[in-house]
Structure formats: structure tokens, C-alpha cells
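task queued by scheduler; priority normal; single chain, no ligands, no partner chains; default sampling; output format set to C-alpha cells
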Amino acid sequence: MERMKELIVLLNKAAYAYYQEDKEIMSDHEYDILYDELLQLEKETNTVLANSPTQKVGYTVMSNLTKIKHEVPILSLDKTKEIEKLKSFLEEQKGILSWKLDGLTIVLTYQKGKLVQAVTRGNGTVGEDVTHNARVFQNVPLKIPYQKELVIRGEGIIPFSEFKKINDSLEEGESYKNPRNLCSGSVRQLNSEIAAKRKIFFYAFTLAKAEDINFKDSKRKQLEWLTQMGFTVVEHYEVTENTVEETVQKFQKNVAENDFASDGLVLTYDSISYSENLGTTSKFPKDSIAFKWADEMAETTLLNIIWNTSRTGLINPIAVFKPVELEGSTVSRASVHNVSMLEKLKLGIGDKIKVYKANMIIPQIAENLTQKNNIEIPKYCFVCGGETEIRALKDGKALYCTNPNCQAQQIRSLCHFVSRDAMNIEGLSEETLKKFVEKEFIKDYTDIFCLEQYCDIIKNMEGFGNRSYQKLIESIEKSKIAALPNFIYALGINHVGLSNAKLLCKNFNYDLEEIKKAKEEELVEIEGFGEIIAHSIYQYFHNEKDMELLQKVLQYITFTEPEEAEQENLRLHQLSFVITGDLKQFANRKELQKKIEYLGGKVTNSVTKKTTCLINNDTTSNSSKNKKAKELEIPILDENEFIKKYLSTPEL
């Protein structure tokens, strides 16, 4: 089984390198030998893991998630922060101590050696059927040698490393708060392709049902058997009353190094019969207890709030305080997250605050004892001096730098310029752009069209070669013939999405010179534009630095003639939508917003008389937006209804 897992990692890594990075880390001959070895092992063990390269996974789209009642209710665990209670819990019994993973609990059922059902914990009594998504988890066996019914419980998680990659790929303001929420939302998606892309892992922690297997009255033996069946089992150790404290400390030392989130440990009796005889209370099973890390709290003094401009333009407030010792390290800073949190804590210079490390890792402010509330929100970015603005996001108010040329936003701006709906230049990933910027090959977007002068250096850079370089240059050459709306969108003008760029071009007959000369009064008259968009466009085309770059890049670009089909594609023109709540058909609200804007529509945050419809999967909720829509007699459509009415065409 270990060799199978090793082969899967090697083969998938080789395939990714070849198809995504245009480089070879092993020859075709070596790949074929390892592939055949894996295929043979799968036949011998009668086990196939979900991420095996021998499997051709077809994605599934569900219309809804079916509610499933659990055969045995999944109860919560009693909790303690005291090691002495763990000792008294064990007494003379042997126990199993394991991580309490912070993800989504899922129950897997196998029949005749095949995965037939995966159900979320839900409320403990009723969960949701997510079998279509479990089939594309990174490590769930689709086929096992055991032929009778098998039911196991485990935790679906997204590692920190994957969580970071996903957040880094998102648009501004759309980052996810933590891996747990992202995992929960991903597992409950209707489209399994979304779950597959987010690389969810399953860790088994309980065998709930398996007939005719002698486990010698030991849960540890059950976990060993599950490992033999191909499951990844949560890290665990056998403990006694005398060794449990030492083992807790062993786990504790690894918290900061783990690539997964955990919110404590779980202690359960090893004896299966002893556990069964204990039964349950109305709330908890009597055979298990959760151990939560006791948050070490320290009181200190707030010295300053510094404002850090990110690559997306988001300006994060960071609290700087007198250094304190927490969980074995010196801490002097903590993120305040956003403007809303700053206001909620009523922070002021000189305040007495209490700080701790969430899950023993991330410094947080727990409480403000004095609440001086004297922090001023900066009106200008500390990096570039550009104006700032407060924007309402789903997680509260946040501060942004409005200057698209802010140095802190350089990489993000370049990523936007080369993106698919903009100049569509393949081969310039964020990491590649960072390397080129560091080597000063690219100082602004115009330098992208002059990369050939660094030909020899680029070919010898790590991750590149002659093949990758040629593909990149070909893509850059191809991008030199562009549609004017895509080019204007690529410029990254504040508040101007692709749909607005199309409307702008249409109103000025696809004449860039006319657009450059347009006055704010003319721009405001464009249907769907307001004073903010008009001012932003006018300001951009009257900024000396922006115009220097524009004049320079125009020597490389040829604009295509506008096609009637392109203009007709704006079928949501003059329509305005509001999106709220969780989505299932789209990865997130930003993705749906992009689709609407691509078709000429507009997405706003508030329901008004001009709103075409409110998109909310919970059409009967008493949310403020639902109430406002009903009051104004604005239709409330769920996702499927919206797609059917506004997006259902053969091309989509």
C-alpha cells in the first residue's frame, strides 16, 4: 500500500511537470514502467485510490444535495482543557490519542468493495449526500478488497499549503477565512470539478461497521486494518494514564509545523467492548473526550497600528504591541483583519489588550481592556500615496488603495493584464511574473512585449527551457492582435470590468482616441455608468504616467475590428443583479459576477428599484436583502432559476 501511494505521487508529479510546466522529470520509458507497476499492484491488492493516474475521473454536476439520515447519530464530544481529566478518564484502560482535525466530518459507506455513499455529519442526525465529491478527493479509495459492508467516519480537510494557493489565485476581497470553511463549502458543491480542483483529503478516524473481522477488541487494530485497505488514517498513539501527558506534549510540539488545521486532540478507549458497554449520554458518547489546547493569554500595551498594502490593493491593519511570550515564542504583532474588526475592538494607541495564539499558531487580539478608540483610518496609501477607499465586503468593511500603479499591487496588476479575459498571455503565471520582476526584466506591463531580449537567460532559468520559452513568445505575439474591450479591461482601470469596457467601446465606436478625449459628463451618460466609474475612466486617461505607458504599448498592439457577435453577446446589458448567500453551481460569488459582467450585466451590493433580480439559493430566508426585494417586488431567484432564465443558451 505504501508503494502504491509512493507511485501515485511520483506519477502525478511527472504528469503535472510534463503537461503543465513543459518539463520532464522522468523519461516516457521510466513513466511507463512505474505506471505498469502501479496497475499491477492495484490488481493484486484489489484497491484503487481516487487520485490514481490509472483512473479517468468524470466530473458530476448534481441538481441538489439529498438529505440522508444517519443509521447511528454522530454525537459531539465532551471537552476538557485539563490533562488531569484525561488521566482520570483513562484510569486503568488503554486509550488512543489522535488529532482532532478541523475540517468536515464525513461518513463513507462501501459495499462489495466499492464506494457507494458519502454523507456529511450535518446536524448529527441528518447529513447531505456528497458521494459525487468524495469520488474526487485526493486519497479516498474507490475500490477496496473487503467485499462486505464497511462504514467509516473521517474528516475532510484542505491543507494549509493548498488553502494558500487557492486564496492567492482569487480576486481581491474574495479570500477565504480558513481551510475549514473552504473545505465545508467545497465538499457541498454540486459540481464535483470544483471539489477536485481544491484538493481535499480524507482522514479516517473511526470504523463504524465491518463484519467478520477479528480486531481483537482493539480500535488500534481497526485503524491498522483501515490502513491496509488503502485509507489514510489520522495520526494516533496508544496511551495509558501514565503516558498520556507526555504524548499530549508530543502532539503539541508539532502544531506549528503541521500542514493541516487542528483544534485539539481526541482520546478514546482502545477496547471496543468496553466502549460499547458505556453507551452515550443525550449529548456525548461516553467512550471519547476532546482535549482543547488551553489558550495562553498575555496582557500587553498597544504601541501602534501599521497599515500593510497587499498585492491586491487591500490595506490590512496590523497591531504592534509590547513583546510578550506566548506558546514558547516572542510575539509583538497581530493582524486586525479589517476596518470592521478595528472598529469593533475600539483600538487606540496605549490601550491595554489581551492577546493569544489561535490554535497555538496565529496571534490574535482577544480583548481590549481600555478602548481608547483613537485610530484614524488613513486617507492615503503609505506605499504610493494614492487615495484610499473603504469597501463593503462579505466579511465586513475593508480599506483599499485606489491607485492601480501602486508598487505593492504591481504583481497583481501584471497578473490581471495577462489573464484570459484581458490579453490572454499563457505561460506568465504569478510565480513567473515574480521572477521576471525580481530580475528586472519587467518593470511595467509594456516590458512583457520586450522579453525576447532576455532569451538566453530565460531559457536557462529553473522551470524553463527552449520549449517553454518558445510557447511563451508565441503567446505574447498572438496577444499583440487584440480586441479593444479586452485591452481596456487589461489596463486595470479601477471599477472597469470587461462588460463596462465593452460598453465604453460601443459608445465611442471602438475608437480609443475618442475614449481618451471623453469628458466625465459624456461618460456618466453611458447606460450603467455612474459618477464613480466615469471619474475613474477620466482620471486614468488624464494621468501622465498611465498615458506614457499606453503610448509605449500601442506600438506593439493592433486592434481587431469589432464583430457583431461580440456586441450581441452583451445580452445582460442594462440588467442589474444582487448576489447573496452560498452558491453551488459556481465556485463563489466572484465567479458568477464575472459571468454576469462578461455578458454585459451589472452586479451591485444593495437591492434597489433598479435591481433586475436577487440571486439567493435560500429564497425563503428572512435576510435583509430578501426582505428588501419583497418590499420592492423584485424577483428572488435561486441559482438554478437564474441560470435557466438568463444563462441557458447552447454556448453556455
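post-processing summary
- The CA atoms of residues 11 and 31 lie 7 Å apart.
- The two ends are 43 Å apart (CA to CA).
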